[in-house]
Amino acid sequence: MYRLYGVKKWGSLGPQCILEEVGAPYEMVWLSAEDRRGSYRKINPLGYVPSLQLADGRFVFESSAIVTHTTDAHPSALAPRPGTPDHAMYLSWLTWMNAEIYSTMNAAEFLEDEGNTVGDAASRASLAEAVRAKVDGLFDIVERHLGGGFMLGKVVSAADIYLMMVTLWTRPNRRALYERCPNIGRVVAAVNARPAVVKVLALNDLA
Ligand SMILES: N[C@@H](CCC(=O)N[C@@H](CS)C(=O)NCC(=O)O)C(=O)O
Q1: Is the peptide bond before 15 cis (omega within 30 degrees of 0)?
Q2: Of 19, 34, 180, 207, which has the fewest Cβ atoms less than 10 A away?
Q3: 85-194 — its CATH code?
């Protein structure tokens, strides 16, 4: 039995979809802001979600590592077999979406955080705008990569589910991104029609 630590609509959403997709037994632990400031720091030093507790009690952190571990441990059509060239492509794109898109969005959110008092408000706002422009450029790269297919080519994979997750946090909203990048919109629509994803979106209060 796994235990997934998360917050609704946050970075636990993708890993939760994958756990549901592969039929792995798991318990969801929804964290409050207080939990994340307190004892949860022993599990994840920055208080970030997600974290996945394994059967032996240890914790996997980083959403892309959780997704990869889950699909490696529970083989399905959602991911290539570990050690193959296709799996190398899978690792590349998952890592890239985490390191580039997710982290850059986090940087923008840090600058936009009302509690941030570093520098002056106008400088933070213009920096945030520049960082958001970088995020748009990263999604443009994904849009061109997809063409008429999916992240790994012709078939849907866990990388497409991860892509759906990171689109949730775009500005001004995800629908504007899907209009600007129709290939991304098409992939997200295909992902969101999968029964396991429908279930997880509902559990995360997303229709
Ligand atoms: N690189 C980490 C990033 C995780 C992350 O940034 N999570 C956000 C939520 S989406 C978080 O927990 N932020 C803490 C906060 O805002 O207090 C991963 O991929 O797991």
Answers
A1: no
A2: 207
A3: 1.20.1050.10
pLDDT of the residue at 27: 98
CA–centroid distance, 11 to ligand 1, in Å, is 6
pLDDT in tens, 61-84: 999 999 999 999 999 999 999 999
The predicted-structure confidence for 83-102, as pLDDT tens digits, reads as follows 999 999 999 999 999 999 99
Question: At the topology level of CATH, where does 2-78 sit?
Answer: Glutaredoxin (3.40.30)
> 16: Cβ below 6 Å to ligand 1?
no
Q: How far is the CA of 49 from the centre of ligand 1 (A)?
A: 5
pLDDT in tens, 15-24: 999 999 999 9
Where do the domains of the chain lie? 2-78, 85-194
Burial 92-125 (b: 16+ CB within 10 A, else e): ebbebbbebbbebbeebeebbeeeeeeeeeeebe
**Mean of the pLDDT values across residues 140-155?**
97
Which residue minimizes the CA distance to atom 18 of ligand 1? 62
Nearest-atom index, ligand 1, CA of 169: 10
